[in-house]
Each structure stands twice: as structure tokens, then as C-alpha cells.
Amino acid sequence: MELIQAVESDLKHRYKYTLWNSGNCEETHTKMEKPPLPSDEEGTRMGASRSEAELLDLGVQGTSGGMASSGDADDRPAWDSKLQYVLAQVGFSVGLGNVWRFPYLCHQNGGGAFMVLYVMLLVVVGVPLFFMELAAGQCIRQGSIGVWKHISPKLAGIGYSSCMVCFFVALYYNVIIAWSLFYMGNSFQYPLPWEQCPINMTTNNTVKECLGSSPTSYFWFRKALDITDSIDESGEFNPIMTGCLLAAWAIVCLAMIKGIKSSAKVMYFSSVFPYAVLFIFLVRGLMLDGAKEGIAYMFYPKIEIWAEVQVWRQAATQVFFALGLGYGSVIAYSSYNPIHNNCHRDALMVSCINFMTSVLASLVVFVVLGFRAKNIVLNCITQNLGLLNDMATHGSNHHWWPWFNMSDPASVTIPDYREWYHHYGSQVGTNITDCDLDEEMSKGVEGTGLAFIAFTEAMAQFPASPFWSTLFFLMLLNLGMSTMFGTMQGILTPLMDNFSLLGRHRTMLTVCSCALGFVIGLLFTQRSGNYFVTMFDDYSATLPLIIVVVFETFAVAWVYGADRFLDDIEIMLKWRPPVLYKYLWKYVCLFAMVGLLAASLLRMVFKRPTYTAWNHTTASETTLEYPGWALAMLAMLILAATLPVPVGYFHSWLKNRGMGPEGELAGQEIDRERYTKCNSSDALDSNSQHTPSVEDDGRPRASFLPLGLDHYRLLPQQEDVEEEEEDTM
């Protein structure tokens, strides 16, 4: 301390310092609102939160005639408005899974009963974890790498794992966007190319593969994907899909090239437009014959499914992915917020919007699938009545003859036909079949099967079908893009925050990342590319993300401490969240995620990984097991995404072990200095927007700041001169 006092007196003739206590961040917070986006380059700000070592170094420079630099401007961007931020978070969390995964899970797992289970898990597990990520990002103001490095240097690998998972997801997610571009481009023609089976020009007959399946299935598997019969047959590149993938990556690159400055502007359209389309489809769908049956099937509760462990696992997994937990994108987006932003309200609001969007999408899906199922059943009745009429023309007359008018199929209702078939179906022969609406509705479809086969088949029967098809695939394009922006932000923000070289070349980093994504993404544009998309979707993200969130929850609740974290949130929000969060983080959420991890591992161990392949000979889908090389690739994907966690831990342990006990303490202090609680990005660059606080409430508080260290803030000479002028007056 004597050395510090000597340095202070030596610098006093040129700088005035203000001493402020590290535990009192409340006043500092009020002065650290980020500038709006257009003013990123404005002005310069003084360095803050300097450690004793920095002050000593400055004293050496001062005594040798050097002048301390006030630092460069803090160019970390910020949201223009709260609406922009909310749209970004909603756009990332509300993705394709809300449209084609959630409705399928409701369909297969008890309808209304599954929704109740989903809401329960969302409230107990989803919202607390979502709030935890929002608060950590907003408080520390770093990407995922910086946040977890700050909480514990040994857990820095969590952030790198999040980046790896984001990269894997971005690779195949943009392929789905490319498919949407392809279908949207083919929607500008009448009739739609998937409405009818094509004619073989050689034989002048209907193509056999299409005749054995359906026009929509044939167009998807043969025209769009030109798919092989298995993952072992790679085939050549699909040139049309390669061009669509290049276009998709170009759109992402242009939207992300200026960071959130550019992507946030796109969000105004990409996040809002899907809701407009969903409402339009809902209104149109409610007018369709079969909509009532579809909605009834959706909401009819089957409480008995709660006894099945598989249903709980699927509900928890959907909550987990719907909110985008573990990707680092939630943390990245919240790090651009003002420090006093009410992130607790944001967590509740975004979670509610996400769930209501899933319900809205499910309504749209079920009314359309109800319409499709009823059309299939009515066509079935028409065909059977045609066969009965043929039997009548040949003089057949039996006691089981239908009592309704067979010559007018439109007048025959489904209940009448089913009642007749129930009584006499066993006597009419195998040519006459049952036409069951419930059975047709029970044939659930998800993912690409829902979007590119079932939904396209239903829209082909709409009046003005090209308009509805264009609208639908434009909605998918925007849903995918808004999620893609968040995924890329989960990669770029942590890298730019923690590597100054990358931070100084943001544009080059964005372009190179997109170019690398396109080159690796060529794997998915082979004729067997759809099988690799399925592999990445099922295994590259699920298990690694669950592991990441388990470590995140453990780091906050047990390593850093739930009470300390709530203390920091109290300073940030100026009110303390309910103590219930402490117990949810420490026990409920952690045990739930560990249970989900165990269930996922057991499922992988006892059930050999399989994929659905298209057999062009039988014109049908078949389930195949992954070959040995594919299993090795699958294992490498999981390991590549999870290895950063243990590697980061052992790297930090070896580093501290080499430094010895005193070196380890010094290393911890350096880490605390580099990542200050109130604005860690400023500490990294030795810059600050803070106005020093001279007040101290005197309350002992554990925080991200190092305890027992005084922080010095050097004020510019101009203020010193102005004060001297006032004294002379």
C-alpha cells in the first residue's frame, strides 16, 4: 500500500483519481447504458476498474515521461430499442421446431394432456434456466465463452462447447433454408409441380415411383433431393440444391455482416412475418372441411400417457430446444442490453410468446391435416362405392347391400359408411376397405415429412394453391433465418469478445465463417445429404447441449453460488427475484437436466441409432441402421461438441498447478480484473463508460468483482484544469 500511495502522489499533478469500492456497482450501473447502434464509433472513454498492477504500470510510465492513454472507444453495439431485442430473442427461440416438431409431439402423446405436461415443465425448468442465461449475459456483458470463463476459469470450456454446437446446427439448419428456397421458387407456377404425377416420356405412362407413393412424396424424394436408397450410397452433388445452399449462406452473410446492426433490422420482418402468415393460414384453415375434426383430435386429452417415461423425456427435450438453451445465443443477445433492463420480465414474456406460438402453429397444422385426412377418407369412400356399383351392374344383390345412395358419393357421410362397414365389412371381400378418419389422423408426420409432403399435399388442394404455397415457404424461410441469425450470433459474439484480433475484423470473421459453413455444408447437398441432415439433427446437438446446460446450472448454482447470483441480479434489477429461483436452480433444474441426460444416454445405448431411408423400388420409406462408419462419425460429432468442457477444466488445472498456490490466487485475481461484473467488455479493453460512484451503502455483497481491492478511475486532465480555474476564481 505504501507503493500505491507513492504512485498516487506522483500522478496527482497530472491526473485526479477517484477511489470507489468494488462492492458498490449500483451507481455505476446507471451510467453504463450502451450507446445506440449508429454511434458505435463516437467519442472516447476513460479506462476503468484498473487493478493495482495496472496502476503501478501506469506510474512507471508516468515517471518516465510517458502519458497514459484513455483508451479507445467502446464499440460494442447495443439494441436500438427494447422491441428490437425482444424480436431478436423471439425470432431465435421460435423456429421451425415450433411448426413441425411441437404439433407432432402433441399429436403422438395425448394432445391436451401433453400440452399440460409441457407447460408444467416449461414453468418449473424452462423459465428458470432461460432467466439464468439472460441474467448472466446481461450482467457480465460477454458472449458464452466470456461468461463462463468469468464465473470460473475452469469452466471456460462450456462456452467453447456452445460455439461448437452452434456451428454444427448452423451447418444443417441452413440446408433446410435452402430446401425452403427451392420449394418457394417452384411455387411460382400453376399447377404446382407436385400436384400430379409426371409422365414417363419413353413409355408414355405415369412414373412408377410416383404411382406407388404420391405426387408430393415423389417430388420431395426424387425431384428435390434425388435421394439414394441408403447413406452408404453417396451419389453426386445435387447442383440445384448446391445453388440454393449458396444463396442461403449469402443471405445469412449479408444480414450478419454488420453484427446486430444489420441483423436486427432484418428481424423486424423475419420475426413478425411468420405470425401474419400463421394467422392467415388459421383463418383459411378454419373454413376448410375437416378443420373441426382436426382441432378435436389435437385437444382431446389422454391422461394415461403421463405414466410413460418416454413422454416426459420428449416434453423436457422440447422445452429445452424451444427456448434455445445452451446455444449461447440467448447470452449473446442479452449481453447487448442496458444493465438495468428487466431480464426477468423478458424471460417470462419470451417463454409465453414461444408457447403461444407453438399452440398457434399446432392449430394451423391440425386444421390443415384434418382437411387432408377428411379428403383422403372421402376419396376412399368414393372408390369403394365405385367398386360396389360395379358389383351391382353385374347383377350382385346381397342382404348386406348399403341402404344409402351409392350413385351419389357426395351424399354419403363418413359415419353412415363406417356404420355399414362395421356390420357387413367382413362379408364384402377384401376389395372394400374401411375408411377411418381417426386412423388417418393418427398417422403423425413431423419435420420435413410435415412441411414438404403433408402440408404441400394439403395446399395443392387449396384454391389459388401457388399463392398459399409461396406464402407457406416464405414463412418457413423467415422462421429459419431468424433462428439462423441467433445461432450465428452464438458463434461470432463469444469469439469477438475473447479474441481481440477477431473483434477488430468482424466483417472478415463473418464472411469466413459463412464461407466455411458453405464448404462443409456441401456434405448435405449430395444425393445422400438428407441422411446426414437427420444424423446432425438427432445427435450433434441433443446430447452435447444437455451436457452444456447441466454444467451451466451447476456453475451458477453451486460453483458461483445461487445466493451470490441473486445478489448480483438484485443490484442489476434494483429488486431481488423470489428465493424460489435459488432452489429451482440448485435442485429441480439440475436434477431434471441430469435425468434428461441419463434418459438420452440410455436410449442411445439400448436402441441402436437408425434413420429413415427412401426405397425407390418399393416407393416407400424404410428404417435402416447406421453402418459402422456412420456410427463412428456420429460419435465424433458428440465428442467434438463435448470435449471442450473437460479439456478446459484440465487446462486450467494444469496451468494453476504450475503456478503454485500463490500463482493460482494471482491468476484468479487477474481473471476477476479482466471480467468485471458491471461491464466486463470494458475491462478487457481497459475502457469504460462508467461514472464513478462515491456512495457506498455499506452492505457486504458477494459479486463478480474481486473483494478487498480498491478500483481507481483516472479522470482526464481537462477536468483538472477546469477545477483549477474555478479555484482561482
Structural account:
Residues 679-692 have a biased composition (Polar residues). The chain crosses the membrane at residues 85-103, 115-136, 157-182, 240-257, 266-287, 315-336, 348-369, 467-486, 507-525, 545-562, 583-606, 626-650. Na(+) binds at residues 91, 94, 98, 354, 479. Belongs to the sodium:neurotransmitter symporter (SNF) (TC 2.A.22) family. The protein has 729 residues and is mostly helical. It has helices at 2-11, 26-29, 52-63, 82-93, 96-100, 102-108, 112-140, 144-151, 157-186, 208-211, 215-224, 239-256, 260-270, 273-286, 291-299, 309-322, 329-334, 343-393, 414-424, 437-441, 447-459, 465-498, 500-504, 506-521, 529-540, 542-573, 580-606, 628-642, 644-674, 680-685, 717-728; strands at residues 16-21, 199-200, 205-206, 610-615, 620-625, 710-715. A two-stranded antiparallel ribbon has the order 1-6. Strands 2-3 form a two-stranded antiparallel sheet. It has a two-stranded antiparallel ribbon with strand order 4-5. The longest helix is centred in the middle third of the chain and has 51 residues, at 343-393. The chain is globular, with a radius of gyration of 31 Å.
